[in-house]
Amino acid sequence: MLSERRLEVLRAIVQDYVGTEEPVGSKALTERHGLGVSPATVRNDMAALEEEGFIAQPHTSAGRIPTDKGYRLFVDKLAGVKPLSPPERRAIQNFLEGAVDLDDVVGRTVRLLAQLTRQVAVVQYPSLTRSTIRHVELLSLAPARIMLVLITDTGRVEQRMVDCPAPFGETSLADLRARLNSRVVGRRFADVPQLVQDLPESFETEDRGSVSTVLATLLETLVEETEERLMIGGTANLTRFAHDFPLTIRPVLEALEEQVVLLKLLGEAKDSGMTVRIGHENAHEGLTSTSVVAVGYGSGDEAVAKLGVVGPTRMDYPGTMGAVRAVARYVGQILAES
Q1: Which end of the chain is more exposed for a tag (fewer CB within 10 A), N or C?
Q2: What backbone phi and psi angles, to 5 degrees, belong to 230?
């Protein structure tokens, strides 16, 4: 176990290195931080931290930089989540509240996260496997043509055209709309097929074909839309940190282009609470020089999707964690109110 003083030295090294981008020496530490001990004592503490793998000497300079292990200890023990200021919180709220639909919410969230953290922002669309149906609307466009509108509890809206095998009257359509909603509203997608399978039999013989066609379209929509989607923004921010990547930024950019990699990264985040993956904790080879900060968001207690940022391991962890958490909370509130 490290002593309290050595933990303080490690915290000071992380803070200085993140702020200055320069390896940190014992003299600078004693001048900048009230450690209450001599440079010689700090040098001894730094030697012990280096021996245990928390800091390393990048080249022949006297300074040290944190290792992945050092950042891990900093995040787990030493870093409080930095709260956002009231003006920052108001700016987030005002920016997100202007969204007109789910695509706009996700797009605004990506831009906002990238601006706040100056990292790459990744936002997953609400997972439809966890969504419930808020409403199914059926609109008559022609005697045998219907528009089906599916609305989820997360504000997602899907529209499909249905060509019926025979004309379908307004009275029958209203009857189907009412019966369908009474069965599926508030229910999860996975439950719907079983809930509607006997519905055609409750209609007159001449309407059963059209009812079956509408239900088939609804079930196809549920299956199609379970595909996971995400949005990414702020990739250009990485160019500001090009020197933080050992050889080239290219493997990071290639990894970020692979949606399956990003979905896996976000999938590792716990539904509730913050997940921070540092350096070599990221399984994908292209991301071993990055850190990922992610959290779940949702319209209630349950997370329906994840959001987060990807950046170099030399990142402002308290500030990034605070921004990610605050944005997730506001997105959840907007979904709850939508």
Answers
A1: N
A2: -145, 165
